[in-house]
Amino acid sequence: MAKIIITEQEPGIDPEAGAGVRHLDDVQLDRLMEAFAIWHDAAASSYIRRVRGRYRLAFLLLRYTGARLGEILRVDDASDIDYEGCEVRIAVRMPAAMRQVLRAVPLPPDVVAAVLDYLNEFPAMQGRVFALDQGNFRREFYRRAEEARIPRPLSHPHILRHTRAIEMLRAGVPLTVVQDILGHVLSSSTTVYLQRPEVMIRRILKDRGLL
To answer: Among 46-55, 64-73, 84-93, where is mean pLDDT lowest?
Structure first.
């Protein structure tokens, strides 16, 4: 299993990485997270809280891993989450002829704690917390996005993948590490989040006083 280790900042990564890729800005992301939290906390019964808790946890894993929706819904909370090490093991999509590879993606401690809190409250859900129907998850995501006033073109789960990638690059996480976290087999899949080369070249030359 590939273990992701974050090293020094990637040189040459533009702070405006992702300018050409649709993603949520900080305000939109905060509103969406708040919408999920309010919806979850407004549950009127233990049953509704159990149901809504699964959607909220799936959302949190999407937000902090940058994984694909299908990958998160295949996570087994009983075997794929390292609760002490605060990481989740996600299957990497590989050609059919190749064996499955797992990538270990770090999680914030409070997200891991939220999963544990849920399992403490609903122990019968162990092993199937994230086993949600994709269509049902998308419908709830669209509703929360509407409540958060997210523009319709950005109101889909995959937007969290783009958002996390750009968030990491702007924070100086090395491109190769972002590639590993996202599970990109080809580096060209990750470089789409960078500025167009000609834009980056112009910025570099201007910063150096050469333009």
So the answer is: 84-93
The span from the CA of 81 to the CA of 174, in Å, is 24
Could you tell me if residue 192 is inside a domain?
Answer: no
Tell me how far apart the terminal alpha carbons of the chain are, to the nearest angstrom.
Answer: 47
Any idea which residue has 């997270």 for tokens?
33
Element (H, E) at 160: helix 159-170
How many domains is the chain built from?
1
The Cα-based distances of 140 to 18, 20, 40, 109, 145 in angstroms read 27, 27, 11, 25, 9
Q: Residue 93 sits in a domain of what CATH number?
A: 1.10.443.10
> Are the CB atoms for 65 and 88 separated by under 8 Å?
yes
pTM beyond 0.90, yes or no: no
Look at residue 110 and tell me if it is in a domain.
Answer: yes
> pLDDT tens across 36-66, in order?
999 999 999 999 999 999 999 999 999 999 9
Q: Are 65 and 165 in contact (CB under 8 A)?
A: no
Query: Which residue matches tokens 């809504």?
Result: 52
Buried b or exposed e, range 130-141, using 16+ CB within 10 angstroms: bebeeeebbebb
How deeply is 72 buried, as exposed, middle or buried, from its count of CB atoms within 10 A (0-12, 13-18, 19+)? buried
